[in-house]
């Protein structure tokens, strides 16, 4: 009797489609978990960056007897332009950036020191890993000019600096400041030091004086645009807020607490596009008489929150839904507010 070969049976088309469908379902279930794990890792790294910045602030304090100013102008400074070095620049020696720090002069306009190569450095500690525009900012001819950063220091509620009398804002940092721990009568654990911002933020600046009243709505800020200079447009490189880590002015290295985190400050420009903007009424260092008021909002790519550093070096997560009164209270150094830590 002849030997019969066993039949070889493959997948039918229906079976193959069922297997593919099952694989698709499994992938759709796994992807959100993977994305959540990646976002959790990015948040952890972001908080680590802020902790390093906090350590650097206190090392600066130990070495100098005061926390760094946001910028230095006019009094006792030989600054030749209006681009004074930022807190970020002053902290370099305390963040393993001593070699870069040794290549620049803090009492000279950083914009005149591009040849040093320092402004184009990417400083990893100054960049949240969730930032989607982790890229060099180019000049008008397309050449590398400077690198952005994503942590803004606390410049206070609204008023940033008055050059006529040297008065600074009510935050942790301002022009020519020399604050120490004793300056924070609200307590360093209750005073914001820095929080997240987005690189390449649209903004406008140098408008008429908006006055000392803190704006109550984003629409109020948008209304200050008449006669202002615009730093915004359809291309990433058109939107230059928080793109100059060496620059000490509020729209590049600070935040204010006019609005709670991730508040959309909508402005419709003449190009019919809507922009989520920041505002600086007068660039610090460009006028000897006009005060600087600013609405520079804390923003992040972390869903529903921003990471924040406090003046005692601690870090916390702050929800977008934080009460505005609490948000402004932690933005002041000596407002005599009582803020419970579990209130945000």
Automatic annotation (TrEMBL):
UniProt KW Transcription keyword: no
Signal peptide: none
GO biological process terms held by the UniProt record: protein secretion by the type II secretion system
Keyword Transmembrane helix: yes
One protein family per Pfam: N_methyl
A cellular-component GO term for this protein: type II protein secretion system complex
Membrane-crossing segments per the record: 12-34
NCBIfam families given in the database record: IV_pilin_GFxxxE, pre_pil_HX9DG
Protein name: Type II secretion system protein G
Recorded name of the encoding gene: pulG_13
